[in-house]
Amino acid sequence: MARGGETARRRRRAGLGALLGGCALVAGSVVPAAAQPQGHGTQYVALGDSYTSGPLIPDQVDANCARSNRNYPSLVAAARRTGTFKDVSCSGATTAEMWRAQGGNGPQLDALNRGTDLVTVQIGGNDVGFGSIIATCARLGAADPTGNPCERSYRAAGYDELTAAVARTAPKVDRVLRAVHARAPHARVLLVGYPDLLPDDGSGCFPTVPFARGDFPYLRDTGKRVNLMLRLVAAWNGVEYVDTYGPTVGHDMCKSPGARWIEPLQPASPAAPAHPNAQGEAAMARAVLDRLDRGHGRR
């Protein structure tokens, strides 16, 4: 039996590899038929990392996880008038925190049960290493603001380390989605992508965002690669993908304080550095609500 289980796992990894290799695929799949949650009586659970929890956005209702009551799950729950709502998202969470406690926050998957009928999941950024990437690129950019020192550093080994990190994260997100299905088999599941952090046209804004000029296109493409990976893993698991990148283009951290929905490394609005502010969380909430309103299987 153990040998057969290992064979099945290898086949699944091979299938995910094929999906990630075929980036031109359109990730439109038929999602499982299930009762569509509507309004009163809906049991909604939100899983995720700091892009979900909304660190420093008023009001903070969980200091351990830096969780705001104005994050996108809270806005979705209010708009849908859900019957019960559990938000267990937590700043710093990786896919591992789906199964293990994080400070006073228990394993996030423990919030699910067979009665759960709506789940949003936003995870994978910390597995790829968002925080360390930003710190590394800011440090290297300060010494070479007109070059592309960050890209050169991550490709110094003869391959792109960030592309490899995204590929390594795919099976981790896959495992999370399979666990969600197992614990909440009747739930409608939405995998939420990440918003647009940097100018979509590849332009820069040193020193507001202290990355080297040539690194902006590289980091933009890395962010898009993360979202493509999430879209493909969602399709592989028959869950719905929520695009938050497209709706936030033009509101990245390089924009003026009044126009940006993502704060730079020195925020001007209450939010964590390189994270959505209240407007960014509201934009992600609109994207989730739009996905919900379109119904199962409709793109």
UniProtKB/TrEMBL annotation:
Domain annotation SGNH hydrolase-type esterase: ranges: 46-282
Domain of life where this protein originates: Bacteria
Database matches in SUPFAM superfamilies: SGNH hydrolase
Classification via Pfam families: Lipase_GDSL_2
Keyword ATP-binding: no
MF annotations from Gene Ontology: triacylglycerol lipase activity
CDD domains assigned to the protein according to its UniProt record, in alphabetical order: SEST_like
Entry annotated with the keyword Secreted: no
One biological process term in Gene Ontology: triglyceride catabolic process
Disulfide bridge positions per record: 65-90, 137-150
Signal peptide limits: 1-35
Residues at the active site: 50, 275
Keyword list, A-Z: Disulfide bond, Hydrolase, Signal
InterPro entries registered for this protein in UniProt: SEST-like, SGNH_hydro, SGNH_hydro_sf
PANTHER family for the chain: LIPASE 2 (PTHR37981), SGNH HYDROLASE-TYPE ESTERASE DOMAIN-CONTAINING PROTEIN (PTHR37981:SF1)
Protein name per its UniProtKB record: SGNH/GDSL hydrolase family protein
Taxonomic source organism: Streptomyces bauhiniae
